[in-house]
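Budget justification, computational time. The allocation requested in the original proposal was used primarily to generate structure tokens for proteins on the priority list. As evidence of use, we reproduce two of the resulting records. The first is shown immediately below.
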Amino acid sequence: MKFVPVGCALFALVAATPALAQAPSDDDLAALVRAQAAEIASLKARLDKLEAREAPAAAPVLAAAAPSSPPAAPASPGGRLPRAVAVTTPYAPQIVPPGPAERDIGRAQEANTAGVTTEWGAGLPVFHSADGNFTFKPRGRILADVSSTFGSRYDDRNLTITGMRALRMGVEGGVGTHFFYQFETDFSENEVDIVTAFIGWRDRIAPGLDYDVRAGHLFNDRAFEGSTGSDSTPFLERGTVSTAIIPQRGFYGIGIMPRLFWKTGHASLTVTGDRVDGNQTTSDSRTVLARAHWNPVKTDRGVLHLGLWGFDEHLSDAATTLTRNTVIGGRFNGALRVSSGTLTGGTGTTGYGAELGGYVGPLWIMAEAGQRHARLDNDRPDFVSKAWSVSGGWFVTGDLPPYNPRLGSFGQPTVLSPIFDGGPGAIELTARYESLDYTDILTGGQGWAATIGANWYLNSFTRIQLNAIHWNTDNRAGAFVGSDNGQTVSTRIGVTF
């Protein structure tokens, strides 16, 4: 095959002999040379293509060594390659591998041939396989806070502090229409902490009636703000009902949570042990928690929300300390707490609460109240904690509150005019009053806080928050005994992917 261009050239010269015998002009000779050169170049290009196609069969070692070739895809359980990856190599083997731009184009063409699609949602891509069977999405959360406290009669409480409320990375995805999973790790406060980590199954029982079951490290479904993620709360910190009327193990536990959803509400039941830890020398505590919410009124511009929840916790022999030090004026001032004083000998806790609120257009309001009974050994009476709060907000820009009617909590807002599209974003003004009472025991304190705030949502996943808090504490134990009050100003920049 390598002699084809030469043969063609000789044939062309023979064919041109009669013309030469007639003594052609210089112009005729120049035109003939140009035509022959063009034909030879065309034939050589065709020959190069044929040689490139035949190279894998003739040189298998070279083909295996080509760095641009993707690895073989694993077989599916049925022995067939998954549809999304059963593609031929887009490059012919080469001694010199393609440059970065060529590789990127080739891989994009391969993904396009496989039918893999990508959509951009809240800042990060969501990947879908061609047959729709597989989905995958990275997750992230960055919440950076600055807090300054002043006015306290104790100098050690007047602090200015910076902190990362959340610094999370994770993934979520699904297989088919039923199986799903999620995993997140938090790196705030310079520590690695496993937060949400579960697998789940979802299905439909009947039209308008769905369920899912999740198993793993689960976030509590408890109270309105307690069920709202830290990246979605309208204030920098959850209210006292969510932070004080809580199982001793905290917001997370390893276990199972079935949930039922209908058109106007949902219900959940959770059974868990302790949160993720490295202690395998004693039995875990056991917690059973249930919550339900109902929207008796639900329109495109308004919702009425009713909610009830409760939990019962049996403490293990290694978790008998019930001491509480609860935030009242912001998360990052460790000296600003309402304290129960040292309390040991706990055997279990039982808590319950109620929620009432909703929204009409850009206005929302929510009231919550709850109690927790901590059971003590040696026939001592229960330690009873009480908390309540009333909060509300107004979207000046006319956006709707980010209420999630499926879960009965707040989520990420849908901003009508993001600043990245030339709009003002969404601007929300907020206010809250909250109260906490630990005075059921002699060493227990009490406190309250009034907060006004402003939230500026640049788009649906980026926000700037400002809270001004006037607080009051009256502790009976600890370093800051007696009545005290002051102010805390806090701000946050948050991004949720």
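The second record produced under the same allocation is shown here.
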Amino acid sequence: MEAQSLGIMLAGLVMAALVLWLLHLLRRAVRALRGWAGLLRRPRLGGLRLAYSRALARSESARAAALAAEVARLRVELRLARAPEPRFQRAKREFARRFHPDRLPRRTPDRPLRIALFREYWAVLRRIERDG
């Protein structure tokens, strides 16, 4: 009986080893299939990626050209805006020199009216200066 149980145990060990060996072979076969499938698929995907990247580069170059044109246009506008700026600053200073309420005598009858007018126009001049 002891020999019989030893035989059963030995048969179980052989069966377990056989199952493990089959699983190992199956795992290697799956890896090989993945590798072959990857080799078959890569050139096509690589071609698609290359075509996509070329299309992306063309669209980006068109976008870069449009942005360069916009920068050139804005530089021209800035140059034109800076040209009248000194004249505007001189006009603003002259307006302040002539009409600022601090330059009026305290007892002038039209002082409140001139203060209100100065504040209103000064706000407009500041808005023009800020917004361009």
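A brief technical remark on that second record: The mean pLDDT is 82.
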